[in-house]
Write a structure and sequence with these properties.
Elements: H1 2-13, E1 21-30, E2 37-47, E3 52-56, H2 63-70, E4 78-83, E5 86-87, H3 93-103, E6 104-107, H4 119-127, H5 134-147, H6 163-176, E7 181-185, H7 193-209, E8 213-217, H8 221-224, E9 229-234, E10 237-241
The structure holds adenosine-5'-triphosphate and magnesium ion (MG).
Magnesium ion binds near residues 63, 64 and 109.
Length: about 250
């Protein structure tokens, strides 16, 4: 119980502190023995509050692995992640669940919506995992659905939505709880260029206006112009690059 309280305090107070993200020497090896795959090799990066960075790299290079570890969805084999002073890699399973609900907005490569809930209910559902007042949650859900061009689709369940619409609901859901850290995996893959730009601009605005930190995995160089810096992964090796070479692969 005492341990839980001290963590609650850490998580609560760190909300007011810049959500600086630090990734230190993170290595991920899937499996063991001769089937072992090294997906990340001593990856290090630092991203500031208010920064929106792009993560590029060919298929299989380790992008999803990296953001899954940063978001506390996957444990690294070694290395550490700090967000706003919290050692994410040191949290218990229970603390991690809370950390993810309150501080991380994750947009998966596949939208992963709850199939029997409408677009609006998918947003309200994640607000229910936190202490957000219901009236505020309804207001925020409606505002996000409007900004994402989904107001008219709010009452549709995922199977009644197009791929791009589902992806936009997933983005709304990720932003719903006003997370410090927004992690998006290929948010524009199912969108046409105009809509893709619109969605990435919305992400950028949320990150800039609300003091968040954002990492976007993308193959689309056109979306990179909305980000502040570019990182690239090649075979599990992460580097900060000035001029990306792998986009489009
Ligand atoms: N659960 C797993 N078990 C074993 N190997 C895995 C697992 N998940 C991913 N890998 C391997 O780790 C490497 C990195 O995978 P990852 O999903 O991070 O790549 P990615 O850069 O996101 O690729 P893509 O652009 O295709 O989504 C790949 O070689 C992949 O086959
Ligand atoms: Mg991936």
């Amino acid at each position: 119980m005492a341990e839980q309280n001290s963590t609650s305090e850490t998580l609560a107070t760190s909300g007011g502190v810049p959500a600086l993200l630090r990734v230190d020497e993170v290595t991920k090896i899937y499996g063991s023995g001769h089937t072992a795959v090294t997906a990340l090799q001593a990856a290090s990066m630092s991203v500031d509050t208010n920064e929106f960075v792009a993560l590029l790299g060919p298929s299989g290079s380790g992008k999803t692995t990296l953001i899954s570890i940063i978001g506390g969805l996957l444990a690294p084999t070694s290395g550490s992640i700090h967000l706003g002073g919290v050692d994410v890699t040191g949290l218990s399973a229970r603390e991690l669940t809370r950390f993810r609900a309150e501080r991380v907005g994750f947009v998966f490569q596949s939208a992963n919506l709850v199939p029997f809930l409408t677009a609006r209910e998918n947003l309200l559902y994640v607000a229910g995992l936190t202490k957000m007042p219901k009236s505020h949650a309804r207001q925020r859900a409606d505002q996000l659905l409007e900004e994402l061009g989904l107001a008219a689709r709010a009452k549709n369940v995922p199977e009644q939505l197009s791929g791009g619409e589902r992806q936009r609901v997933a983005i709304g859901r990720a932003l719903m709880n006003d997370p410090d850290l927004v992690l998006v995996d290929e948010p524009t893959a199912a969108l046409d260029t105009a809509l893709g730009r619109q969605v990435v601009q919305l992400l950028r605005r949320e990150i800039k206006d609300r003091g968040k930190t954002g990492i976007m995995v993308t193959h689309d160089l056109r979306m990179v112009e909305y980000t502040d810096r570019v990182f690239e992964i090649l075979d599990g090796h992460l580097t900060h690059v000035e001029s990306p070479t792998t986009a489009g692969h």
